[in-house]
Amino acid sequence: MRGAGWDGGDVEQRHECPRLRLLVLQLLIVVSVVSPFLIYGWFDGFGNNWLVRRPAVVDVDSLRMRGINLPEPTELAKQLLIRNSLPPRNVDLFPSLGDDRVIIVLYVHYRPSYLKLVVSALSAVHGINETLLIVSHDGFYEEMNAIVESIRFCHVKQIFAPWSPHLYTDEFPGASPGDCENKDDAEKLSCAGNPDQYGNHRSVRIVSLKHHWWWMMNTVWDGLAETKGFDGHMMFIEEDHYVLPNVYRNIQMLVLLKQVRCPYCIAVNAAPLDVKSRGEGFGKLVAEKPGNVGYTFNRTVWERIHLQAKPFCMFDDYNWDITMWSSVYPTFGDALYTLRGPRSSAVHFGECGLHAGYSKEHASECQDSPIDLSNGIENIDRVRNINPRWPLRKVRIKGYASGFRGWGGWGDMRDQHLCLCFSSMYAEPLDHN
Ligand SMILES: *[C@@H]1O[C@H](CO)[C@@H](O)[C@H](O)[C@H]1NC(C)=O
Ligand SMILES: *[C@@H]1O[C@H](CO)[C@@H](O)[C@H](O)[C@H]1NC(C)=O
What is the value of pTM for the model shown? Predict the structure, then answer.
């Protein structure tokens, strides 16, 4: 068909026509390649080049088609989803990471003065420049963001919980106008919500911490390009945990020792279970019940935790740690120990009531830090102070209070459902063939 005109045409037609077609084709290609950039611009809202931007971490629409119904993100939440997929900062300053690195995850809400102190402590940690620091924010606060953006001492990646109740002012996961409050009778008042086992309705301030913790765990292990193939350990600290300069080297040593000295340990810790204790100070390693300061574990353990997503999300207690002890760990079968040194290398200094620090209005309830650094940091805390040949003392874990049903605060089915969505938002789509 195409050849018909050529064969019958004169010389001029035979040469000019294909050249014109080629030109039009070339023009079409150029236009189709360039036009998206003309329409959307070369840069996104954060000044990142379009060509190197990576896909958003969570595609809410395609998850919905798979039956995973996350709440519709607000405009800010949508921007946070894009931010979460940005590469870490300072990659140019530290071209390679240590093979034996322990990734540090710092989870924060809104206590800027605390965060400043913790960041300055982290800057003095020996070995910090060999690893990645992930800061997970419960919501978005510009002051908190600015403190983290000032970090120059290691690779740092920020993630922001896009379904933080703090980002939703008049709808779930925030409080909605039609919600029941306190001990309201849902039927009489025809308000929304299920009360917990003690008859209390959900409180946004109370549920946000457990939501953030579970969203963060799922995200750092399963939702980031930076950690996808990582099968080492991650250490978790909060914005009111002051780390000492030896914390990283001590944790690395404990990770090695765990494998050979404490096969029944699932984690290592930077501090004793009792947050007020600085440790015994003796020449022994300690295996005990895992505490909340600088707990460190690997993907194998995360996978065991993740398998228990349903008990975690359905347990009626607003504390993530009590939920773990009451609904997740008991399924592991045996008692769970953590390995630590006899002297803490991270110190809990927060004096805010559990929730006082979690809103701007209550920030004043926080007292000054009780940690005494007036004499500076002692030399023993500047270098690794764990001796691998020390004997091990096992502090026997007393049984769980079996039958404990939780302190409540987590009875609303919407919270339980959101928590379950977090558990599956990074799962690969099932192949239905
Ligand atoms: C990391 O910091 C130490 C000092 O603490 C320094 O000797 C070392 O060269 C740094 N490494 C990198 C990759 O910057
Ligand atoms: C992860 O930690 C557990 C508990 O200490 C250990 O049994 C397991 O071998 C570790 N996995 C890897 C891949 O190192």
Answer: 0.84
